[in-house]
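Could you join me in thinking about how sequence relates to backbone shape in a protein? To get us started, please write out a protein record for me. Would you write everything just below, so we can both look at the same thing?
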Amino acid sequence: MQQLKTVAFHTLGCKLNYSETSTLSRMLENDGFEKREFDDEADVYVINTCSVTENADKECRQIVRRIQRRAPEAMVVITGCYAQLKPEEIAAIEGVDLVLGAAEKFNLAKHLQDLVKGDSARICSCDIDDVQGFNSSYSINDRTRTFLKVQDGCDYNCSFCTIPLARGHSRSDSIEGVLRNVAELAASGTKEIVLTGINLGDFGKGNDGGKRTESSFYELIQELDKAEGIERFRISSIEPNLLTNEIIEFVAKSKKFMPHFHIPLQSGSNKILGAMRRRYKRELYADRVATIKQLMPHCCIGVDVIVGFPTENDEDFQDTFQFLHDIDISYLHVFTYSERANTHALELKPVVPIHIRNERNKTLRNLSYQKMQYFAAQHNGQTRPVLFENADKQGMMDGYTDNYIKVQTPYRQQWANNIVDWTLS
C-alpha cells in the first residue's frame, strides 16, 4: 500500500491561479495526500506560477531554493504560466523535479505516481495551441468568499502580454457547469462568489476549439442572479470594450451582484493604448465609468494601469495621471512595465528607464490612496451591508461592504461569515 504523502502548495499571481491551486489541492487530498502549510515540511511542494512580470519569475526561483534548504528530499513541482512559457528554464533550476504545462496541470496526481527524486527534471508540456479543454476550479480556503473560474485563455493580442502564450485560446465553462459549482459552494456555506477569468467578458466560447456557443457573459449573470444559497456575486475584472450597458444596467438592478467593477485601463493616453494594441480608446473608458456612476453613484470602480510602457514620454504619463485624477474611480492597481519575451512591445523604442518607471508607479500609487480615501469618506454616516470574514486577526476581524469598503472591528464569532448592517465612519 502506498504510503500517505504530504503536499504543500504555494500560489503566485492572480485570483485565477488561487482558484486553480485550491482545486488541485482538493484533487490530491481525494487521492490520499495530506495537505500541509507551505512553511512546514512536506513530501511534495507544488508552486503554481505567474509570469506577468520578471518579479514573479524571480520569486519562483527563490522559493525553490528555500524548499531545498528546508526539505532537500522533497519533490518540487512547478506549474502555471511560467511553466508553460519557459519549461526548460525552470527544469534547469536545481531542485525542480517536474514541470507541468497548461495541458497537464490538472493531471498532477497521475504524474506524481512514478516521480523519483534525483532524476533530471521531467517536463510535461505541449504547444499552447493544443490546449483546448476547460477545467473548472474554485478556491475555498474559508467559507466567506470564493474565486470561481468560469473562463480561461485569451484571444486578444495586447503587445505587452504573454498570457495568450501561457493560457491558450479563450474558452469557457457552460452556464450549467457554472451553476453546478455554485450549488456546491452554496452547500459548503460560501456567502460570496467572485467570478474570475483571463478575459471574463469573453465568456461563451466553448471547449470545442473556441467556437462561440449560444451563451454570453450577460446571460451567465442573469442565471446566477437566480441561484439560491449565494448572497453576493462580484465580477473580478472585465475589459471596458466587453462591459456593455446591459451588463451595467443589470448589476444596478440586481440584489446579488455587488456595485463593484474592476476595469483594466492600462493607459490614459490614446497613443499608448494604440501601441499596447488595446481594443478601445480612453473616451470609451470614460463613458463606461460615467454610465456606472450615473446608475450607481455608490459603485466602487478599480482600475489596472501600466506605467513605463515603451515610448511613454512625460506628456503621455501626464495624460494618464490627469485622466485618472479627473474620472470618478475608486482605486488603482499599478503595474510597472516589465519586458517579456516573445511580445511585440520588445520592438518598441525608446525604452523608459527603470528609475522613471518606478517614479511613475509611486505617483500613481499615491493617487490611488487619495482616491480610495475620498471614496470611503463619501460614504461616512451611511449604513451598508458588510460581510465579515472568519479569520481572527489578533482579536480583530475584516469585512467588506457591498461596494468594497474595508471595515475592521474587534472579533465577534457571531459575525464571522455573516452579513451585518454597518454604519460607516
The two ends are 60 Å apart (CA to CA).
